[in-house]
Design brief:
alpha+beta, five-stranded antiparallel sheet, rod-shaped
Length: 612
Amino acid sequence: GGFACSGGVQPRPGGAGRGAAAPPPPVVIDCRPVPGEPAVIATYDNTLVLLSIVVATMASYTALDLAGRVTHSSGRTATLWLLGGSAAMGAGIWSMHFIGMLAFELPIPVFYDGWITAASLLIAVVTSGYALSVASRRVLGALSLLGAGIIMGGGIAAMHYAGMAAMRMSPPIEYDPGWFAASIGIAIAAATAALWLAFTLRSTTSHLAVAGKLVSALVMGCAIAGMHYTGMAAANFAEGSTCLVAGGGLGLSPEGLAAALGSVILSLLIATLVASSLDRRLATRTARMLGEVEQANAALLAAQESLRESEERFRSAFESATIGMGLVSLDGHWLRVNGSLCRIFGYPESELLSADYQSISHPEDLQADTEQVRRLANGELQSYQMEKRYFHKDGHVVWVNLSVSAVRDARDVPRHFVVQIEDISARKQAEEALQNMLREQALRDPLTALFNRRHLEDAVEREFARARRNGEPLAIIMVDIDHFKSINDRFGHACGDAVIRRVAQLLVGGVRRSDIACRYGGEEFLLLLPGAPASRALELAEVICRSARDLHHDCDGRSIGAVTVSCGIGLFPDHGATAEVVMKAADRALYRAKEQGRDRVVLAESAIRRQG
């Protein structure tokens, strides 16, 4: 007959004394031979049972966690993680088995066959490796999951029963079929559930997922332990059973072997968990850094897109601007120009780009412009504006309103200049015409529109210098209205002004374009005749006197009658070498003409009576 083993709890001999904390009661196995014979008592150490469950749970968590490491790795790294996980989980399950066997105390000496024990370890490692490889797949179907659960559960059971076989009991251990099947079913179901949880939770690092892995590891650890103790419940030891493995040699003591391997495997599991944790932390940090890099790249791409859009807007504004725009290098060469700038200067774009900034600038403006550019490059100015002149391609001067600013890099070093040019030639021409008109008005008499004495002074000096330089004659005719005071007294100043205007028109009508007629003062006029000899001066003076006498003046419906004039003539170089001397000679001749009765022409130092 055999031992029929059933569970129970009995106190150990030598219990705690009064007042002391009682240790946990051991688990007792009652192995009865045949009915009616005394029972053989086998016990379980509760501490070792708990330790076996902890080891199984840690091995399961390590394996399930390493499945995620394998998934997120590739190449050699993934292979190393797979090998490490297989060794950790297989050794953990194997260690749990022997710790459980250490907790099981038979009333006979028990030793283990070394070769069979090593084979059970190999079964545990290979089975764990296959399970991890399946859990680390990118896609896991239902059939693949079920197959992996069957293989892993079967491997755990095979490792267990191989370890039991290492005891080499005589007669052999007999197993209850129901408990035997239950142990295998528990192993397969637990392994399948744990693999499914590992596959589902491997892709996340949230606290919830970590908790899920802990639960799945606990389920798997308890399942492994449950399978072990269910398998132990299935074992029947015959009466008089003995262990055929002798101590020493290849016979391994369960106490020494389990304690040593338990410590080593526990250390291996802790080291593996620490490595996994460090790797996870490194992976998390790497993922965070990658996220930051991706954010930086996204920001860079956004900045590049913004810069591209900004450049596109600038390009569009640059090309379509109605004012001239250009980019100029630090050494003064055109880098880029728009169509408006080409139209302002009259150059095609290719020719303008081959020219430099200075070559088309007016030399009188270049120095001031260069100084402003220097100050702009040195950071003394942010920008500057000025009016300056350029040369059009056809040679005429173009007036522009110039605005220049510097484009600087991150170190505040100027890269190039942005130039904006507005053509103001029309405005400058209008301003110049207005200035000429104002200048002309300042040099003319407002009553007669003849030149005034201010202009005469410049003209006399200029013409006398030319006459001396060229050796040409020059004549001055002084003209005065006779009896002008009596006209003012009898008819009023308005009539006197009318007479002055009529005589001025008479003078203008008798002179050449090169001659200059001016109102010298009051009723007195002066004619400057460059290149005129005495005969020309005398002839013109006679015509003036005769024409004035032939005019009849009316004022406010009243007849003023004929108005006569007197003329005095001075000649260069006959009567003097300077303008002052000749003008005095003409003035003296005019004075003598009035003394001689007026309405006369007198040449300096001689008098010629007008022939009626």
